Amino acid sequence: MQKVIVGKQVKELDALFVKESGISSYQLMERAANEFCHWFESKYKKAYTVNIYCGTGNNGGDGLAIARILSGMGYEVKVAIIGNQEKGSVDFIKNLKVLPKKVIESNWRQLEPRDLCIDAIFGVGINRPLEGEYLDLVQMLNNNEAVKISVDMPSGLPSETPADGEVFHADYTISFQFPKLALLFPEHAAYVGKLVVRNIGMEPKHFKPFPSEYWFFSGENMPAYHRKFHVFSHKGDFGRIILAGGSFGKMGSICLSTMASLRTGAGLVFCKVPGCGVNIVQSTIPEAMVIPPSSDMEVDADLDLAGIDAIGLGPGLGKGNHAHKLVHHVLENYTGPTVLDADAINILGENREWIALLHPNVVLTPHLKEFERLTGKTCDNHLQRIKLAKDFCMNNHCSLVLKGAFSLLTFPDGTQVFNNSGTVFMATGGSGDVLTGILTSLLGQGYSVKNAAICGVFHHGHAGELAGEKYGRGTLPTDIINSIPQSLLAFGIE
C-alpha cells in the first residue's frame, strides 16, 4: 500500500530519496521521463507527431527529457517552451542543453497541436490560477482535438485543493510513485482523464519520515490481507451470513448481493426478504436459504441474529415502516460485523438519533448522494467529503466506503485509503449491491473490518475490470459477480 503525502513533503521526499539512493535530482528526473516513455511507447505508434509544451521548472525539465527519449525511440517530436529560460530550474537547463537538434523548438503560439500533445508546463508547485500567456496556451490546447497527456499534474491544477480557474484537460495523467491528492477528486475528472501511476523506485522506507493519513491501494501484497483456510475447513468456517433487503419490484438488488456473497466464498447464506421475493430467491439462487417472512410486500423486523457471523442490510429494502423497524432492530441488537447499504443508509439519515447506535463493526457503503444524506451537502467538493468522512467515522467509531472512482475507505482511527481498481463500465445499477455481498461474505469469513474493506473493494473493482475487458459498456453486475473468482485467483487467493 502506497502512502500519499502532501504539501512541501513532496519536495522533501525527492530530496531524501536522492540523498539515500546516491543519485542526483537530474537522474531522478531521468527515471521519471523513462517511465513516462515506456508507458507512451506501449500505447502510441511512432507514426504520431508529438508536441511537448514545457514550462521552465522541473515539470518542464521532465518534458524536455521526455522529448529527448521519445526522439531517440523514433518519434517525430516538437517542443515549445513557455517562460523565461534563463530563470529555469537547474535540471530544466541541463535537459535543455542535451536536447537533440532533430527535436524542433518552436514558439508555443506557432506550434499547433497535431496528433498528440504533452503538457509539461506546471507540476505540483502551482498555487494560483493560470494567467497571462500560460492561460492563453492552456485555453488554446483545451480547444484542440489532439490527444492530451499531462506529466505528473494537469497544468493549472493544485496538487491538494480544488481547481480554481482554467486547467489543462488531459486524456491521460501520468503521475510518479503516488497520485497527488487532487488527482483523486471526482470534480477533477475532466482535467485528469485516465490516471496512470508509474513507479520510479521509491520504497516504503523513504516515506516513513512523512506522516500521512492517506493511502493508495493497487493490490500490493494482496495475500497478506486475506484469511487462509486449512484442508479441514467446513462451511461453518466460511461464515453464516444474513443478507436482508428486497421489496416488491426491487428483488434484483438482494439477489445480486446474495450471488456475490456466494461467489466470494460465503459458507451459509440466509436471505431475509419479503414474501413476494421468496420464490424469486429460491428459484434464482438455489444455494441460498430464505428466512420465512411474515410480510408479503416488505422485509419485516422479525429477525433472529443468534449464531450469525455478519449481516448485510439495505439492497432493494425500500423505506417503508417495516424497513425502518428492521434497521433499528439490527443496530440495537447486533454488535457483529454489519454492512449498511442503499436504503439502510437512507433510513439512517432520516433517523439521525440512530447514528449513536453505530459501532466499530459497522461498514457503511454510500454513493455520493447517500453520503450527503448522512453528512450534509458538500457543493461538489471532494476535499470536504474526505474530511467529513473522516470526522463521521472517528466520531461514530465506524468504517465507511464512499463509492465511486478511487473509492475512499475511511476507518475509525482516521486512516483513509483510496482504492485503485475499477472501471467506468461498472457505472450501472446493481454494482453497489454486488459490493455489499462481497463485503458481508468476507466479514462472515472472519476478516477484520479493515481487511474486509480493503480486499472487498479492491476485488469488486478488479472483477469489474475483468468483466469490462470482455463486455465494455455492456457490462452487467452479474458479469462482475462471475469475475470475482477470477480476481481472487489472479492474486493467488485460493
TrEMBL record:
<feature type="binding site">
    <location>
        <begin position="123"/>
        <end position="129"/>
    </location>
    <ligand>
        <name>(6S)-NADPHX</name>
    </ligand>
</feature>
<feature type="binding site">
    <location>
        <position position="367"/>
    </location>
    <ligand>
        <name>(6S)-NADPHX</name>
    </ligand>
</feature>
<feature type="binding site">
    <location>
        <begin position="403"/>
        <end position="407"/>
    </location>
    <ligand>
        <name>AMP</name>
    </ligand>
</feature>
<dbReference type="InterPro" id="IPR029056">
    <property type="entry name" value="Ribokinase-like"/>
</dbReference>
<feature type="binding site">
    <location>
        <begin position="58"/>
        <end position="62"/>
    </location>
    <ligand>
        <name>(6S)-NADPHX</name>
    </ligand>
</feature>
<keyword id="KW-0547">Nucleotide-binding</keyword>
<feature type="binding site">
    <location>
        <position position="316"/>
    </location>
    <ligand>
        <name>(6S)-NADPHX</name>
    </ligand>
</feature>
<dbReference type="InterPro" id="IPR036652">
    <property type="entry name" value="YjeF_N_dom_sf"/>
</dbReference>
<keyword id="KW-0067">ATP-binding</keyword>
<feature type="binding site">
    <location>
        <position position="134"/>
    </location>
    <ligand>
        <name>(6S)-NADPHX</name>
    </ligand>
</feature>
<dbReference type="InterPro" id="IPR030677">
    <property type="entry name" value="Nnr"/>
</dbReference>
<feature type="binding site">
    <location>
        <position position="155"/>
    </location>
    <ligand>
        <name>K(+)</name>
    </ligand>
</feature>
<keyword id="KW-0511">Multifunctional enzyme</keyword>
<keyword id="KW-0456">Lyase</keyword>
<dbReference type="InterPro" id="IPR004443">
    <property type="entry name" value="YjeF_N_dom"/>
</dbReference>
<dbReference type="InterPro" id="IPR000631">
    <property type="entry name" value="CARKD"/>
</dbReference>
<dbReference type="InterPro" id="IPR017953">
    <property type="entry name" value="Carbohydrate_kinase_pred_CS"/>
</dbReference>
<feature type="binding site">
    <location>
        <position position="432"/>
    </location>
    <ligand>
        <name>AMP</name>
    </ligand>
</feature>
<feature type="domain" description="YjeF C-terminal">
    <location>
        <begin position="218"/>
        <end position="491"/>
    </location>
</feature>
<comment type="subunit">
    <text>Homotetramer.</text>
</comment>
<dbReference type="GO" id="GO:0110051">
    <property type="term" value="P:metabolite repair"/>
</dbReference>
<comment type="function">
    <text>Catalyzes the epimerization of the S- and R-forms of NAD(P)HX, a damaged form of NAD(P)H that is a result of enzymatic or heat-dependent hydration. This is a prerequisite for the S-specific NAD(P)H-hydrate dehydratase to allow the repair of both epimers of NAD(P)HX.</text>
</comment>
<feature type="binding site">
    <location>
        <position position="59"/>
    </location>
    <ligand>
        <name>K(+)</name>
    </ligand>
</feature>
<keyword id="KW-0520">NAD</keyword>
<keyword id="KW-0630">Potassium</keyword>
<feature type="binding site">
    <location>
        <position position="152"/>
    </location>
    <ligand>
        <name>(6S)-NADPHX</name>
    </ligand>
</feature>
<feature type="binding site">
    <location>
        <position position="433"/>
    </location>
    <ligand>
        <name>(6S)-NADPHX</name>
    </ligand>
</feature>
<comment type="similarity">
    <text>Belongs to the NnrE/AIBP family.</text>
</comment>
<keyword id="KW-0521">NADP</keyword>
<feature type="domain" description="YjeF N-terminal">
    <location>
        <begin position="10"/>
        <end position="208"/>
    </location>
</feature>
<keyword id="KW-0413">Isomerase</keyword>
<dbReference type="Pfam" id="PF01256">
    <property type="entry name" value="Carb_kinase"/>
</dbReference>
<dbReference type="GO" id="GO:0052856">
    <property type="term" value="F:NAD(P)HX epimerase activity"/>
</dbReference>
<comment type="function">
    <text>Catalyzes the dehydration of the S-form of NAD(P)HX at the expense of ADP, which is converted to AMP. Together with NAD(P)HX epimerase, which catalyzes the epimerization of the S- and R-forms, the enzyme allows the repair of both epimers of NAD(P)HX, a damaged form of NAD(P)H that is a result of enzymatic or heat-dependent hydration.</text>
</comment>
<dbReference type="GO" id="GO:0046496">
    <property type="term" value="P:nicotinamide nucleotide metabolic process"/>
</dbReference>
<comment type="similarity">
    <text>In the C-terminal section; belongs to the NnrD/CARKD family.</text>
</comment>
<dbReference type="GO" id="GO:0046872">
    <property type="term" value="F:metal ion binding"/>
</dbReference>
<feature type="binding site">
    <location>
        <position position="119"/>
    </location>
    <ligand>
        <name>K(+)</name>
    </ligand>
</feature>
<dbReference type="GO" id="GO:0052855">
    <property type="term" value="F:ADP-dependent NAD(P)H-hydrate dehydratase activity"/>
</dbReference>
<protein>
    <recommendedName>
        <fullName>Bifunctional NAD(P)H-hydrate repair enzyme</fullName>
        <ecNumber>4.2.1.136</ecNumber>
        <ecNumber>5.1.99.6</ecNumber>
    </recommendedName>
</protein>
<keyword id="KW-0479">Metal-binding</keyword>
<dbReference type="GO" id="GO:0005524">
    <property type="term" value="F:ATP binding"/>
</dbReference>
